[in-house]
Design brief:
mainly alpha; binds fe (ii) ion; globular
């Protein structure tokens, strides 16, 4: 059974490495820039969806229940929105241009900042708000969901389904979105 935080931290390491690699490329490495850009998009989208569907709602429910800092949930969600704006701008930029390099650097700084805050604040608090069995239960749900998301990303026939699901998730009322999280947070009624 995977621990939710360990899973997310391992994704963080991957995306940080890819963003560093992209930042080191020049305008001449067009193919490499395109490849890295596609990999980064896939890593970020799947990771953000796992956090938004499962990890963040569980954190929020636990924070509300046990007096944690729920501002961390709202800040992290807003940072995801900013990434959602910078990523398409990078994809649309010409890899032969200086602008592409500048956008890659901005995305790297943004993601590194977001990761640092998640790891030092939200994850650190989650370890106090949730016990080991809750983190493992959440990890199980995330691992299953990740499998589906990766399959959708890899299979072009499933791509429209993925787009639809992701759009539906964004439109879903926060209450519904957070129901799963509340269920895991409620596993520990002893505190
Ligand atoms: Fe995040
Ligand atoms: Fe994250």
């Amino acid at each position: 059974m995977p621990n939710a935080i360990t899973m997310l931290k391992s994704d963080h390491a991957t995306v940080k490495r890819l963003l560093r690699e992209l930042d080191e490329t020049t305008e001449r490495a067009v193919k490499q820039r395109e490849r890295l850009c596609a990999e980064i998009e896939r890593e970020i989208k799947i990771h953000a969806q796992l956090e938004e569907e499962l990890f963040y709602p569980t954190f929020l429910a636990a924070a509300e229940k046990r007096g944690g800092d729920d501002d961390l949930f709202y800040e992290a969600t807003e940072e995801h929105h900013v990434v959602d704006m910078v990523l398409p701008a990078l994809k649309a930029a010409n890899p032969k241009s200086k602008e592409f390099g500048a956008k890659a650097k901005v995305l790297k700084d943004l993601v590194e900042h977001h990761i640092r805050e998640e790891e030092t604040e939200m994850f650190a608090q989650s370890r106090q708000l949730l016990d080991d069995s809750q983190l493992r239960e959440l990890g199980d749900q995330m691992a299953a969901r990740k499998e589906t998301l990766v399959a959708m990303w890899t299979n072009p026939l499933l791509k429209p389904v993925k787009k639809l699901q992701s759009a539906a998730h964004k439109l879903m009322p926060t209450k519904v979105k957070n129901a799963k999280g509340a269920a895991i947070a409620a596993m520990r009624d002893d505190v």
